[in-house]
């Protein structure tokens, strides 16, 4: 190997596979055992050991390139493979039109601030709630709840509007009040929603009700029905303390428990963490975080095989990119003092799509709002479309992946910039629906459906 201002005519090296915590740490990994004529030198030295080469494996080059060029070109090598594909389900067979929306009911209205879950072993996506017009919940019963059903185990999907169970006394459909910005998560084949609001201001008409949804398909007629049940939740203490009504909070399922963080309430932006036991229907207050400011639209991730929870980003009066880990234990758990590593490389953001994928031991954050609108929720700020990959154990940032070409005209299939969307995950695949795009002059709500397979 000949460096020292000259060129590399041809070289071969077998490098050991090293795990990068971030792209910018690439050169730091080369600082191990660089020796020249018995003296310790930096990467600019003339000799380097093959054991320090960064994940190159067997590499052969016939080029004129200084070592710095080699480092630059390979520190952007993706360690995670993403395969985005747009899903275009067959429209629902019924095409009635609602006078308030003047929109066909064969497909979901474009929307933001909604919820998305997946059940029945990855064969049924459940879309609920949201806003088609800023700050106005979708009220049309034929638009509030949608199912995307995988057809006979294939890659074909179909939109379905289920029949909602009715009251035996009034014969009216039993449904939660319309809402935006609720939290939604699935335990097994049961979907839970909590809170949300149907007012304009931060705490206006916020809710703290809990509902569960079950979906059933008749094997003979293939008719799909959905049953809503309101849960009469209680506290696990004698104080009967329940979560404050809120919106733009986030919730994930770990085992039979739901964990919920933050959001916007009448008292302002919140930084409290709660656990809901779906077996006993009891809430446990895990306390206010002393390491994170109150915020709306955070990302909440399951880490270390469901032993920890990571909270990343969110809007705390400004877009943020901080993150901390909460360790779960039988006696209540605790917040780790040290923040998650590498988040300074992620552009501050909120209202992103996020997913935990234990199958590949990684977490994914997609897009989000990076520049808040001057009109608040009435407008549309600046949005991203990159993917931030985090380690599934520690939550440390591994890499930040952008579509090749860096714009929406490239051949690579990739969702456009957006925030206020929602995502769900099954095994190694994340699903994304809708969201808000555009700008203050022309905000655009979306109704596209995407899947992203994640592999190492």
UniProtKB/TrEMBL annotation:
GO annotation, biological process: glucosinolate metabolic process
Gene Ontology cellular-component terms listed: cytosol
UniProt keyword annotation of Repeat present: yes
UniProt-annotated stretches for the region Disordered: 90-112
Pfam family of the protein (one): Kelch_KLHDC2_KLHL20_DRC7
Record-level Gene Ontology MF annotations: enzyme regulator activity
Keyword ATP-binding set for record: no
SUPFAM superfamilies: Kelch motif (SSF117281)
Keywords on record: Iron, Repeat
Protein name (database record): Kelch repeat-containing protein
Organism listed in the record: Skeletonema marinoi
């Amino acid at each position: 190997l000949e460096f020292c201002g000259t060129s590399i005519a041809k070289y071969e090296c077998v490098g050991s596979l090293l795990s990068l915590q971030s792209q910018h740490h690439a050169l730091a990994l080369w600082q191990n055992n660089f020796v020249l004529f018995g003296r310790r030198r930096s990467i600019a030295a003339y000799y380097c050991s093959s054991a320090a080469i960064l994940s190159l494996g067997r590499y052969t080059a016939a080029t004129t390139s200084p070592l710095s060029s080699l480092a630059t070109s390979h520190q952007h090598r993706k360690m995670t493979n993403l395969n985005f594909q747009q899903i275009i389900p067959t429209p629902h067979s019924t095409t009635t039109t609602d006078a308030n929306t003047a929109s066909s009911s064969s497909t979901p209205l474009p929307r933001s601030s909604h919820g998305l879950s997946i059940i029945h072993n990855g064969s049924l996506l459940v879309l609920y709630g949201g806003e088609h017009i800023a700050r106005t919940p979708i009220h049309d019963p034929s638009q509030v709840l949608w199912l995307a059903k995988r057809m006979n185990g294939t890659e074909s999907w179909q939109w379905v509007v289920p029949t909602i169970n009715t009251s035996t006394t009034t014969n009216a459909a039993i449904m939660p009040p319309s809402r935006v910005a609720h939290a939604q998560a699935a335990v097994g084949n049961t979907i839970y929603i909590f809170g949300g609001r149907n007012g304009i201001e931060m705490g206006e008409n916020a809710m703290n009700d809990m509902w569960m949804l079950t979906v059933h398909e008749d094997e003979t007629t293939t008719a799909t029905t959905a049953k809503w049940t309101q849960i009469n939740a209680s506290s696990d203490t004698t104080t009967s303390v329940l979560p404050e009504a809120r919106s733009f909070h986030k919730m994930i399922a770990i085992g039979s428990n739901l964990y919920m963080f933050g959001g916007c309430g009448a008292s302002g932006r919140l930084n409290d963490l709660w656990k809901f036991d779906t077996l006993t229907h009891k809430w446990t207050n895990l306390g206010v975080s002393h390491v994170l400011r109150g915020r709306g639209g955070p990302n909440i991730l399951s880490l270390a095989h469901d032993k920890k929870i990571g909270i990343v980003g969110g809007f705390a009066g400004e877009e943020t990119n901080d993150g901390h880990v909460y360790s779960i234990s039988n006696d209540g758990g605790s917040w780790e003092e040290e923040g998650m590593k590498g988040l300074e490389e992620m552009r501050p953001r909120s209202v992103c799509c996020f997913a935990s994928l234990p199958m590949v031991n990684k977490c994914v954050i997609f897009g989000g709002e990076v520049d808040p609108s001057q009109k608040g929720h009435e407008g549309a700020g600046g949005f991203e479309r990159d993917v931030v990959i985090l380690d599934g154990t520690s939550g440390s940032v591994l890499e930040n992946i952008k579509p090749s070409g860096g714009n929406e005209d490239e051949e690579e299939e990739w969702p456009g910039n957006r925030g206020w969307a929602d995502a769900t995950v099954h095994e190694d695949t994340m699903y994304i629906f809708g969201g808000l795009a555009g700008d203050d002059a022309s905000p655009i709500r979306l109704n596209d459906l995407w899947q992203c397979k994640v592999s190492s």
